[in-house]
């Protein structure tokens, strides 16, 4: 330590001298000493001549020297302390500057469920993330801003399709078959699903992630999987009435940088001649077509956002509009989004009544494409042309597989280019989320507040999927005779909310008491309708209609107590009723309690200059889950027959009704969580972060299970059966290695370890009792199981047999008794102990600033999980020529394993999915004071999806379900951006 101080003593004065020498000569040599309120010198304090870039830093003894002019104003700042300004007088007497500790960090308001608390009073495990405007890369959807940013939160971004939503999991999720999405609350409105792709990322002020039961239990229902509170940007609250404008725009260019390794046309001809068992009369084509090149393109995109912020007669307001237009790398794939929002925050009755009005609207217009074209392009014969004409305009000018008598082969793959070009698909979604919140401080009793929040989330979705007559896909699908189709779908969803609570907050000397009690009502309703007809309007299938509603009623309360912000206690209780359950099981009760101790305020750390923040937290709580299956789980319901299934009695057709399976005793799934946490800060919070360890037990799992024949009206129902245990460690750290007048370097990182194990799954648990999951597509293609003693989504596969050279034996497996078998029955499969759930994941962000330049890098990774390469598993030498008279391409790896048939259940294709991805690199420059003090311009260049470090043989290991099939891979994107503020 002494050596380090000696080095610092020699370096810091030199650094300060270098900074001073770079400045023009001034009139007076100013000397000074910077210390804290206890008299200890402050190292690395910034001393800057206000309005210039002239300055220096204090050395290890707190001393500094710089040249300045008389009447110059010196600005003195240091992390963890309040800044101070002094005027240069010309006196030769050294300045003695005492900086006071900055307690605003502890007084910063943090948004929690139904209210706010001071950051220093937080007892639960939560973290607030404010999007870094300088280091965010390309953010098309709101969840992009959270990727890799919070320990315990794993976000698998959406596919390469623009606008696709990612999968968010907090602490791995607490359920099996029930919903594992976290509860999303936007400006006080719990939305109906976890998709937040319709929200403009530029409107978001902060994310608050609630993780442990103490933080989430106030939401009770749907809080088992964590809560994400999104707060949008507000109008000016600093009294400035002049409107300020902010405009941002970017242009992006994206491309597919990696394709599946298939045989080229020449390689294919060689392999076909060697391995294909084709009749002599069968001939390959005479062209060379790269089908993957034919379906992909360079994707262009633009994004524009304009916001106006100000205040009218003390009414803060913010209005914004945004427009996004992004092409996908698959041809004809496009996503457009139009956003608008308005926020008003007036106050009335001498600021006793605060009104918060938020209205957000969006129109998403997507032209989707079927990801099956990727698989078709991988397997399509590279010697065949893209375009070809046939009699009667069959195929509409696109190549098709033709059999005897020049008729289409219905069992062949469709031309992937024709599927992209001829399909007319469109998804249009209109959504509006809004609320009005009234907060009234009672006159004469201002410690008592009443809050009423009324909100809504309305969504309308329209889809169509049309294909013309004679299209190639209409011979391999639909009616298989060239008949075209017209599919339409319409859906309305309504989510309405009313919350009313009373809050009492009072300081009694060193004691602080905050009590809240409230009532909540929420209704979910939806109605769907779809039809499938031919191009003339004749029904191909019976129209389908569905309508349902769900009610949630709640009573909740919370009590916070703190003494000197040193000892803190929080207790909550919520009672929820769901119409999904019968009256006997309708109510669930979810309590929690948490305590915190701010250790650094104790006398024995009062003079410690290393520890600047240290808080210990301990919590326990219960949360609930009710989201599984339909809205009417406990009721005996019936399904009406389709027209083609009606019964003829005499001369009249009668509609029949079949009963659906149900469980009248279904009830709440309950998760109880224990959490131990530490919040820390060292060296004036130049080093800070959190550490949390939790263990969790979920009881009465809402599970989708098979039931014995005759015991219900169906062979599987949703019911409460099973328990699951989870535990985890979460570490977050923030570093400020460098902070001078010109340089600033910030580093933030997080690491998470999660482990889950199923402890009960059925009334009788044994090795043969499990729930199949992880369907790869098609009947019976389950690759994973839920099983007692195992992690959810554990792979259940055949053990591949190998020869003495390590070459896999085609169709040979090792049975449970050690013998070699060719049977692919379930009885020969084994529990691999390997899951698609990632037990380890991390995130890393850094930003380096020099004057007006900035460089930012973000990355994230996952480790310890496995991916099943189903693309390779469904490939074989026999695919070169099939019994249907069609030739197909194969992966290069198929020539290595030489499997003659698809081996879709062998563990040979189970691979480690470990990866670390550099998400984006951004460099920017800001021009301040363009024409006055309030104007600025920033230009930036960014690369998104820079690279992925992984040993996985497929395209991309980052898959939520762990099954690699027809991936629409995420493109590498280059972006030019501009931000103008005036």
TrEMBL record:
<dbReference type="InterPro" id="IPR037066">
    <property type="entry name" value="Plug_dom_sf"/>
</dbReference>
<feature type="signal peptide">
    <location>
        <begin position="1"/>
        <end position="25"/>
    </location>
</feature>
<dbReference type="Pfam" id="PF07715">
    <property type="entry name" value="Plug"/>
</dbReference>
<protein>
    <submittedName>
        <fullName>TonB-dependent receptor</fullName>
    </submittedName>
</protein>
<dbReference type="InterPro" id="IPR012910">
    <property type="entry name" value="Plug_dom"/>
</dbReference>
<keyword id="KW-1134">Transmembrane beta strand</keyword>
<dbReference type="InterPro" id="IPR039426">
    <property type="entry name" value="TonB-dep_rcpt-like"/>
</dbReference>
<keyword id="KW-0812">Transmembrane</keyword>
<dbReference type="Pfam" id="PF13715">
    <property type="entry name" value="CarbopepD_reg_2"/>
</dbReference>
<dbReference type="InterPro" id="IPR023996">
    <property type="entry name" value="TonB-dep_OMP_SusC/RagA"/>
</dbReference>
<keyword id="KW-0998">Cell outer membrane</keyword>
<keyword id="KW-0813">Transport</keyword>
<keyword id="KW-0798">TonB box</keyword>
<keyword id="KW-0732">Signal</keyword>
<dbReference type="InterPro" id="IPR008969">
    <property type="entry name" value="CarboxyPept-like_regulatory"/>
</dbReference>
<feature type="domain" description="TonB-dependent receptor plug">
    <location>
        <begin position="119"/>
        <end position="227"/>
    </location>
</feature>
<dbReference type="Pfam" id="PF00593">
    <property type="entry name" value="TonB_dep_Rec_b-barrel"/>
</dbReference>
<keyword id="KW-0675">Receptor</keyword>
<feature type="domain" description="TonB-dependent receptor-like beta-barrel">
    <location>
        <begin position="388"/>
        <end position="869"/>
    </location>
</feature>
<dbReference type="GO" id="GO:0009279">
    <property type="term" value="C:cell outer membrane"/>
</dbReference>
<comment type="similarity">
    <text>Belongs to the TonB-dependent receptor family.</text>
</comment>
<dbReference type="InterPro" id="IPR023997">
    <property type="entry name" value="TonB-dep_OMP_SusC/RagA_CS"/>
</dbReference>
<keyword id="KW-0472">Membrane</keyword>
<dbReference type="InterPro" id="IPR036942">
    <property type="entry name" value="Beta-barrel_TonB_sf"/>
</dbReference>
<dbReference type="InterPro" id="IPR000531">
    <property type="entry name" value="Beta-barrel_TonB"/>
</dbReference>
């Amino acid at each position: 330590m002494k050596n380090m101080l000696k080095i610092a003593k020699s370096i810091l004065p030199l650094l300060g001298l270098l900074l001073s020498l770079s400045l023009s000569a001034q009139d007076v040599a100013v000397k000074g000493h910077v210390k804290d309120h206890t008299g200890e010198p402050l190292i690395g304090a910034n001393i800057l001549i206000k309005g210039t870039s002239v300055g220096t830093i204090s050395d290890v003894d707190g001393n500094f020297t710089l040249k300045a002019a008389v009447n110059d104003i010196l600005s003195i700042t240091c992390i963890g302390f309040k800044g101070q300004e002094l005027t240069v007088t010309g006196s030769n007497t050294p300045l003695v500057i005492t900086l006071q500790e900055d307690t605003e960090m502890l007084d910063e308001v943090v948004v929690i469920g139904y209210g706010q608390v001071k950051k220093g009073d937080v007892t639960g495990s939560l973290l607030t993330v404010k999007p870094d405007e300088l280091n965010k890369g390309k953010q098309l959807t709101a969840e992009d801003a959270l990727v890799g940013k919070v320990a315990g939160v794993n976000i698998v971004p959406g596919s390469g399709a623009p606008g696709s939503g990612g999968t968010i999991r907090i602490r791995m999720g607490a359920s099996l078959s029930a919903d594992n999405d976290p509860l999303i609350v936007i400006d006080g409105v719990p939305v109906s699903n976890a998709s937040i792709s319709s929200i403009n990322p530029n409107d978001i002020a902060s994310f608050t992630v609630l993780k442990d039961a103490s933080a989430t239990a106030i939401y009770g229902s749907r809080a088992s999987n964590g809560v994400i509170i999104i707060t949008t940007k507000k109008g000016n609250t600093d009294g400035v009435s002049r409107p300020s404008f902010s405009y941002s725009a970017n242009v992006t260019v994206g491309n597919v940088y990696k394709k599946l390794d298939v045989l080229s046309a020449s390689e294919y001809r060689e392999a076909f001649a060697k391995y294909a068992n084709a009749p002599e009369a069968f001939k390959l084509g005479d062209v060379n077509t790269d089908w993957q090149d034919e379906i992909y393109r360079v994707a262009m995109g633009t994004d524009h956002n304009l916001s106006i912020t100000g205040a009218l007669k003390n009414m803060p307001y913010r209005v914004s509009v945004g427009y996004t237009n992004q092409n996908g790398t698959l041809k004809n794939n496009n996503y457009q989004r139009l956003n608008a929002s308005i926020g008003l925050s007036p106050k009335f009755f001498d600021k006793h009544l605060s009104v918060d009005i938020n209205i957000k609207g969006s129109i998403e217009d997507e032209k989707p494409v079927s990801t099956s074209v990727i698989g078709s392009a991988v397997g399509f014969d590279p010697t065949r042309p893209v375009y070809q004409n046939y009699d009667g305009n069959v195929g509409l000018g696109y190549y098709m597989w033709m059999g005897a008598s020049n008729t289409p082969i219905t069992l062949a793959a469709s031309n992937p280019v024709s599927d992209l070009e001829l399909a007319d698909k469109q998804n249009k979604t209109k959504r509006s989320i809004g609320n009005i919140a009234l907060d009234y401080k009672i006159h004469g009793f201002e410690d008592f507040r009443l809050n009423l929040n009324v909100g809504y989330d309305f969504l309308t979705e329209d889809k169509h999927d049309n294909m013309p007559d004679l299209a190639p896909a209409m011979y391999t699908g639909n009616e298989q005779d060239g008949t075209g189709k017209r599919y339409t779908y319409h859906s309305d969803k309504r989510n309405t909310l009313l919350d009313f609570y009373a809050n009492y907050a009072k300081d009694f000397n060193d004691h602080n008491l905050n009590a809240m009690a409230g009532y909540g009502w929420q209704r979910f309703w939806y109605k769907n309708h779809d039809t499938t007809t031919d191009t003339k309007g004749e029904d191909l299938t019976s129209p389908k209609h569905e309508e349902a509603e769900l009610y949630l009623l709640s009573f909740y309360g919370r009590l916070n107590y703190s003494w000197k912000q040193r000892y803190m206690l929080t207790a909550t209780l919520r009672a929820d009723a769901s119409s999904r359950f019968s009256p006997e099981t309708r109510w669930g009760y979810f309590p929690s309690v948490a305590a915190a101790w701010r250790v650094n305020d104790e006398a024995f750390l009062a003079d410690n200059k290393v520890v600047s923040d240290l808080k210990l937290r301990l919590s326990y709580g219960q949360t609930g889950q009710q989201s599984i299956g339909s809205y009417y789980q406990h009721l005996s319901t019936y399904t009406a027959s389709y027209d083609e299934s009606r019964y003829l009695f005499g001369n009249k057709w009668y509609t029949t009704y079949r009963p659906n399976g149900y469980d009248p005793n279904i009830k709440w799934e309950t998760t109880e969580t224990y959490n131990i946490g530490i919040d820390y800060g060292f060296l004036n919070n130049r080093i800070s972060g959190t550490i949390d360890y939790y263990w969790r037990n979920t009881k009465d799992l809402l599970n989708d299970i098979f039931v014995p024949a005759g015991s219900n009206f169906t062979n599987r129902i949703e019911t409460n059966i099973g328990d699951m245990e989870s535990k985890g460690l979460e570490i977050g750290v923030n570093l400020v290695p460098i902070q001078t007048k010109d340089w600033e370097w910030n580093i933030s990182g997080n690491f998470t370890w999660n482990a889950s194990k199923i402890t009960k799954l059925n009334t009788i648990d044994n090795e043969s009792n499990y729930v199949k999951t992880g369907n790869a597509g098609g009947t019976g293609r389950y690759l994973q199981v839920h099983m007692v003693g195992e992690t959810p989504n554990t792979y259940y596969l055949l053990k591949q047999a190998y020869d003495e050279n390590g070459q896999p034996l085609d169709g040979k497996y090792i049975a449970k008794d050690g013998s070699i078998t060719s049977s692919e029955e379930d009885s020969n499969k084994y529990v691999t102990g390997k899951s698609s759930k990632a037990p380890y994941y991390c995130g890393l962000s850094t930003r380096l600033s020099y004057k007006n330049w900035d460089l930012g890098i973000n990355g994230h990774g996952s480790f310890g999980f496995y991916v099943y390469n189903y693309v390779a598993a469904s490939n074989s030498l026999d695919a070169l020529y099939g019994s249907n008279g069609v030739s197909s391409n194969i992966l290069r790896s198929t020539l290595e394993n030489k499997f003659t048939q698809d081996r879709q259940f062998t563990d040979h294709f189970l691979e480690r999915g470990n990866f670390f991805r550099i998400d984006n690199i951004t460099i920017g420059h800001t021009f301040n004071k363009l024409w006055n003090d309030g104007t600025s311009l920033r230009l930036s260049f960014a690369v998104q999806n820079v690279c992925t470090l992984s040993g996985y043989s497929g395209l991309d290991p980052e898959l939520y379900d762990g099954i690699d099939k027809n991936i629409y891979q995420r493109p590498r994107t280059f972006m030019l951006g501009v931000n103008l503020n005036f």
